[in-house]
């Protein structure tokens, strides 16, 4: 098996003695792998992605990402860790008062990269997602699919080794959803490990990959793909 990018063992998130979001979840993702996490609403998909992005803490178990123990990560190291992980949200989370260019550039500007390096990277990722000609437009002038492409561009601008996506096609029509999935596969082909949370069985059939299925917070099924 490829070198591990993600390693979970006995992971649980408990809100009370009888109420939990995840329970005893264990799996590995290889470096450069593409996989889905699926299940009904409330199954724990978003919670799992938030754990991997250090937005929530485990109640039990351990999570390692790129050989870093995320489950015990000190708060003052979370920002540094997130430089290695991209996150694509279902609702885009673009800043409406910034242009597309500035939305994508923001993570690099926070890191205080030189203007020249920022410009080089922003133009590169906007070209990758097919929006090089919309750099100076604002989010509200774009379609939902275009806004999601901007969100993806922003998530990969820092060249993360792991890309997480939470229902990234949930608000899109079927044709646009296919375009977005093709973009994720292209990013994966460039070497990025990709984990997508989705309940869209049609897309998972059309773009087959290893699938992890959650039910009421437990990992109940895993389907491989050769």
Note down, in words, how this protein is organized:
Strands 6-7-8-3-9-10 form a six-stranded mixed β-sheet, sandwiched between helices. It contains seven helices and ten strands. The mean pLDDT is 94. It has a domain at 1-82 and 192-226: 3-Layer(aba) Sandwich (Rossmann fold). By secondary structure, the protein is of the alpha/beta class.
Q: Name the strands of the widest sheet in spatial order.
A: 6-7-8-3-9-10
Q: Give the C-level CATH assignment of the domain at 1-82 and 192-226.
A: Alpha Beta
Q: Strand fraction band?
A: 25-35%
Determine the mean pLDDT: 94
Summary keywords:
10 strands; six-stranded mixed β-sheet; 226 residues; globular; Rossmann fold; four-stranded antiparallel β-sheet; alpha/beta
List the helices and strands and how they pair.
Elements: E1 4-16, E2 19-30, E3 34-38, H1 45-52, E4 60-65, E5 68-69, H2 78-82, E6 85-88, H3 100-110, H4 115-128, H5 144-156, E7 162-166, H6 174-189, E8 193-197, H7 201-206, E9 210-215, E10 218-223
Parallel strand pairs: 3-8, 3-9, 6-7, 7-8
Antiparallel strand pairs: 1-2, 1-4, 4-5, 9-10
């Amino acid at each position: 098996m490829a070198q591990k990018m993600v390693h979970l063992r006995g992971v649980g998130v408990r809100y009370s003695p009888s109420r939990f979001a995840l329970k005893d979840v264990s799996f590995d993702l290889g470096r450069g792998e593409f996989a889905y996490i699926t299940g009904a609403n409330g199954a724990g998909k978003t919670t799992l992605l938030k754990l991997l992005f250090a937005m929530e803490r485990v109640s039990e178990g351990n999570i390692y990402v790129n050989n870093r123990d995320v489950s015990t990560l000190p708060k003052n190291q979370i920002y540094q860790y997130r430089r290695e992980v991209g996150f694509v949200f279902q609702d885009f989370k673009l800043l409406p008062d910034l242009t597309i260019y500035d939305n994508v550039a923001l993570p690099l500007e926070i890191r205080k990269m030189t203007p020249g390096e920022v410009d080089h990277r922003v133009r590169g990722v906007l070209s990758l997602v097919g929006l090089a000609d919309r750099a100076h437009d604002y989010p509200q002038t774009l379609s939902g699919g275009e806004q999601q492409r901007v969100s993806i561009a922003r998530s990969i601008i820092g060249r993360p080794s792991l890309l997480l996506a939470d229902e990234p096609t949930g608000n899109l029509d079927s044709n646009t959803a296919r375009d977005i999935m093709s973009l994720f596969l292209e990013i994966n082909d460039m070497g990025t490990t990709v984990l997508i949370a989705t309940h869209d069985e049609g897309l998972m059939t059309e773009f087959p990959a290893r699938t992890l299925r959650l039910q009421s917070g437990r990992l109940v099924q895993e389907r491989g793909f050769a």
